[in-house]
Amino acid sequence: MSGEVPLFSYKPTTPGVIMDARFMGKRRMAEQSVLGGLMLDNSKWPEIQSIVTEDDFFDNRHKIIFKAIKRQLQANQPVDVIIISDVEGLELSYIGMLAKDTPSAANIVNYAKIMKTEAERQQIAETLTHALANIHKGDEPEQVLKIVIEQAEKAIINTQKGGFMFTSINKISVKPIEWLVDDFIETNSLVEAFGAPESGKSLLAIDWGLSVSAGIPWRGHNTQKGAVFYIAGEGHNGLSRRFSAWGLSNGVDLDSLDFYPSLQAAAFYNKQSAISVERAISTIASKNGIAPKLIIIDTLARNFGGGNENSTEDMNLFIVHIDALRAKFNCTVLLVHHTGHGAGERARGSSVLKAAVDTEFSLSKNNGNIINLNCTKMKDAAHPAPKSFTISSIDLGIEDDKGHAANGPVLSETMYTAPEPKDKPLADNQVMALDALERLTEEHRQNFIDLGKNPDESKVTEKLWREQLGEMKAYEYRNIKNGLLKRDLISIDDGFVYLI
Prior knowledge:
Strands 3, 4, 5, 6, 7, 8, 9, 10, 11 and 12 form a 10-stranded mixed beta sheet that branches. Strands 13-15-14 form a 3-stranded antiparallel beta sheet. By secondary structure, the protein is of the alpha/beta class. The chain has helices at 21-40, 45-51, 60-74, 81-85, 92-100, 108-136, 141-159, 201-214, 236-250, 271-288, 312-329, 352-356, 428-450, 462-468, 474-486; strands at residues 179-181, 185-186, 190-195, 227-232, 259-261, 292-298, 332-340, 343-347, 359-366, 370-378, 387-399, 405-414, 460-461, 490-493, 496-499.
């Protein structure tokens, strides 16, 4: 067939290099498995492209297929047998065979490593063959040895491209910190803000996000303007009021901003869900000619997925997927999270989260309605001074169906107020009771969202909460309830129990 690429068209760059059948067969099988695996599941593409390049393929046809797959994925386009077969000179039957003969993509990374190893062997073999040829020509052995060493060093350096490498300290340039929000949030970093319910953590995330999107100073700190993507774990009824209140409070037309809230929660524990989020952001960014500066995930629990945030293994996987998202867009990711019960000074869940983030902030209520913002980790800079806020209500200029004015909350900065002395830690049974109430509260809110209702109207009965605590004597339940009421961690009204 005219113009058809030969099925097997490898020629060593140095004539006379001898490759035995085992070498060629192993390498060819690895190449086929990498290509077939990518067409079955391209979720491992970031790992594959860090290991091999098109120059590592010895079969010319495979090289062309790899370049076609790379071109599709870099353009955020789908990859399958039909699409790749459209590349000029490639047969559908052969490409289909690659996918058919690859049972799964589970070992695709290992096959890529085999490819890389065999490519290194080939390059070294070529260097030695070239040296032997020069000896046979009568060159001086010492001169030939010098050439062999130089060429071998070059070969090793070339085979390291895309793999693990070191550099010299004199090649590392010192750069000043680039701030997204001066003194508080760095560009291209992972940030966490945690707090108890109603501590203003979502309002803070909105305040930061909309300030960045508008390019206006945040509380006297300059921002770097850019697109913001807000991955919301709850419905848009409450959020839309908060967004509108912020716009009115700051005199900003929200319609002019590159600010994009999600229509549903994500599940970042799941790789496919993380990839889906990445593609959705890429689509909007490409369509509007923008680059994300900040991605907000509110809250971690709502966007975690099927894993257990208390598990080190599950949290590590969540962080891997979040880091991949951050690296893809070279942007900052802000995680909004809850406090751990009985340990209000730290975030809930596995401690590997704090180890992974670059910056961490805590929000806590103090002296009634005062909210304190404190930096609890700043990896590469001095901790910024703490701030205090109150929550103000803004008239949105609209009415509900009963003629009542609709309001929205915003943060208002006030003079910093030092925290009050801490109470003693909660007892284990109090922690258990709070965990149960938070779980029920989240389940009820999600049920309302699924039914298209306002989640802020969901309630948990005291009876249901009591049942969730299991068998215990009446006085034990009474002590738990009264202890939590006394510490203003819950409230009970007309048979319903609420987290404070």
